[in-house]
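Researcher: Here's a chain I'd like modeled. Treat it as a single chain, no partners, no ligands.
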Amino acid sequence: MRSNPRSPCSAALAVDLQPRCGAERVEAVLSLADVEQIIASLPDVVESERHGNRTWTVGGKAFAWERPFTKADLRRFGDETPPAGPILAVSVADLAEKEEVLAQGTRGVFTIPHFDGYPAVLLQLKVAPKRAVRELLVDAWRTTARKRR
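Model: Modeled as a single isolated chain. Structure tokens:
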């Protein structure tokens, strides 16, 4: 598809920006491949597998991991449709930060009962804005790297 050089929307989308097209704001979302790219740019990260899912660690401590829903998670959703697509768990510094992150109301950032009392949030990659995912990943890495010292 060719972009129209006179259209600010098509030109901006071609370089993966978040342009304003009329009154709507177009938000870029991420795939797992995009997440891998972000994480690959962080120093001292090791990718491994834990509980059958990809996990990224720094200093032997996990800061992000793929988190598909378990049967128990799905039962807790009841009649509600669970978030679709790849789900990523990302650690936060503590429960106060978790509450702050959730209170921002960012699309695609949520928690489930299994994570009650645990300092991490879940990201629905098909919905969460690219910038929010990137910031949460970098903050998780930074917090975890600091704890290992």
